[in-house]
Write a structure and sequence with these properties.
heterodimer, A: about 400 residues, alpha+beta, Uridine Diphospho-n-acetylenolpyruvylglucosamine Reductase, domain 3, Alpha-Beta Plaits, 3 domains, 6-stranded antiparallel sheet, 4-stranded antiparallel sheet, about 25% strand, B: about 475 residues, Uridine Diphospho-n-acetylenolpyruvylglucosamine Reductase, domain 2, 4 domains, 5-stranded antiparallel sheet, about 35% helix
Amino acid sequence: MIAPDEEEGFAVAIRAAAAAREPLAIEGLGSKSGFLRPIQVADTLSTRNFSGIPLHAPKELIVTVRAGTTLAALEAKLAEAGQHLIAEPPHYGFLDARAQTVGGIVATNLSGPRRVAWGAMRDHVLGIRAVTGRGELIRSGGRVLKNVTGLDLCKLFAGSYGTLGVMTEVTLKVLPAPEATGTVLLRGLDPHDAVEALSAALGSPYSVSGAAYLPQEAAMALGFERPVTIARIEDFAESVTYRLDRLCALLHRFGIVEKLATEASRTLWRAVRDGEALPVQPADAIWRVSVQPSYGPSVLRKAQDAGMFGYLDWGGGLVFLTGPATVEAHAAVMAAARRAKGTWWLMRAPEPLRRSVDVAPPEPEALAAIRRRVVASFDPAGILNPGRLFAA
Amino acid sequence: MIDLPAPKQDVLDRRDAVYEGLRAILPARGVITDPARLKPYETDGLSSYRQMPFAVVLPETTEQVAAVLRFCHQNGVRVVPRGAGTSLSGGALPLADAVVVGMMRMNRILEANYGDRYAVVQAGVTNLGITKAVEADGFFYAPDPSSQLACMIGGNIGMNSGGAHCLKYGVTANNVLGITLVTIEGEIVKLGGTHLDTAGYDWLGLAIGSEGQLGIATEIIVRILRAPEGTRAMLAAFRANEVAGACVDAIIGSGIIPVALEFMDRPAIHACEAFAHAGYPLDAEAMLIIEVEGSVAEQDALLGRIKEICAQFDPISLKVSQSDEESAAIWKGRKGAFGAIGRISPDYLCMDGTIPTSTLPRVLHRIGEMSAQYGLQVANIFHAGDGNLHPLIMFDANNADSMHKAEAFGADILRLCVEVGGCLTGEHGVGVEKRDLMGVQFTDTELDQQRRIKTAFDPDWLLNTAKVFPLSDTIPRAA
């Protein structure tokens, strides 16, 4: 493994690999190396030794982080200033390593429950420094909140799984962490009524920042006896009190509405964020399906019919699933997502399945042709995580 | 006048054949070639630059846009996409050999889905038109550029437009779920959708703000949000720019993110007050407009906290609105700023750099020095929360020297923005106006990589040529 502690080291390693046409696995701490397609590589280039937080300007709502910094270290640093990461990135319990890097969470564009209201990781990447497959250092964006100068490569790199370049540094927008939080909870709803309740909450003027539905098994994993439907408010204490009351009145028609105060609310949403409600077995596969919220229940039901477990986040728009790592189960997820006009990822699975199926929806040919040209423009030798997202 | 590339002689030579080809694709009302009718398209919001187009087409469907682009691609004809023509950076400035593709006839709202909180609209729908269509049901579309009455969502996609309320709600890219993009080869591709995250590369994020370099967006799926219970504004005036800047820091530092936080300097206050009679304090050096939202009790609580913070900075005046009417009065001057400057100066250039907010006092001081050096007045309006600066440089376009000085002054301000850690443009786009300054912000290596992406989408560089990238490079480069 090559793990430079200086930015130039990434350029040196990539130039050498490009000259030798020897593919590199690009990773931070490898916590998500079991995601998407497996790759055949000669060596691994890791950001793990390139860490640190060169700039945190709380009043400018920005933080600049070297890619190898752990997510936990960044969150601790922000917490000292009473701030947090807006997209609430998950710390999944099923990762291959306990710690993840900031570069990794940006490169995989993973967001938590707050995404439904406040945007994804990709929405808060203000600037990047990256070494492309050409071994060239490029910057995009910067350290200011509003910037439309040139093409937005920050968004292109977010979610690109290390296939365009190695991000060495990212600048993120951050916000003050809320003073208080609270949750309203309904028990026993079916998925359809649950999403209707969550849509009412998200469509209310009360700034709901989390909206999830845990069916029976998922609810039981978190200590509930029946399915639960939950909506969260995060704000100043007096606003949380007021808004929870308003939500109770709004959702009354769906059943008895209970309230969770700050600590219980934080614990519950951390569990939802981290996938703890999924009964994942080591040999199982994990899928994420992103659909328009009202289609979430039908995707969930079809997956359940095919023997999977799952729950809904993002008001119904994110269906998080686990089940047997078989071609048949995968086909059922793809079919359900397609019928719902949605998109999907085979996130984690034993290697044979990930090698033999599409891990994300194939692009129409016109877009695939553009994609090949764009990827080749960054990485002409095809040495950075080749085939991680698409086989060809 | 800015340099534009030499027209392609072979296209000019085939004028009649090209016109005929376009007429075969579109109904007669959709192809404009008569000089008198081309005239309104010769400029956009950057009206000091003018160029008569080769032709204007007004497609009515995505398929027509695709057919036009395929035809232009096959015939080597350049294309300039255009929405309402409100670009302040010359993003829609025509070329003598280019077909302007005007999107204004694609102006229908196709769907509004309140349960799933999105709307599907055509590119020629105005920004405000989206909100107007959904506000009766309590919803709105968040980005609100000053030109929102006229500007079109297709242009907002091109420029990744912002507005006064993006401190809380984000810019266009944060509020769009999907687009239908037509490539120069005439392919129709759907990026994103009615869902939140999309698997694969974020082509949607790349396309938004790409200034028509990669394709033309014909349909847009926007997020719509439920409107807050109410909003209320307050006004705080201070003795010095530094003090107002420190107050902004203190507000953000307290954990409050107002929905809007606008800064005006002394010349801006005076110009706006003379125009709008909004009751702005004329003895102030700097003024903030701060807006919060929520229930009346929540507004009271937040404005109470903000007022306490402002009081620590020895304000000249603090006025908390007590009603919607008073809030509207506070905003009236700010919203009329362009008109106000237009009243005291024959012409003005509106610059758009962004700076780290901590550098505000230093930047305003330097702009003041430059103003004296150039002998041109400047008024500063500033989205203070996010560092997006709008210096309005006053000049006389009929005086070549005055115009030249204004451009040089503007360029100096943008260099300063980059020097202090900011960027050339926060929300107006590079367009033709700032293309030759791109080298101030980016290295050749960085620009080359952006050009390769452009080439991947548009191999012959036919789309919005002579914008974004320095003119010397507006030719395809080998990838």
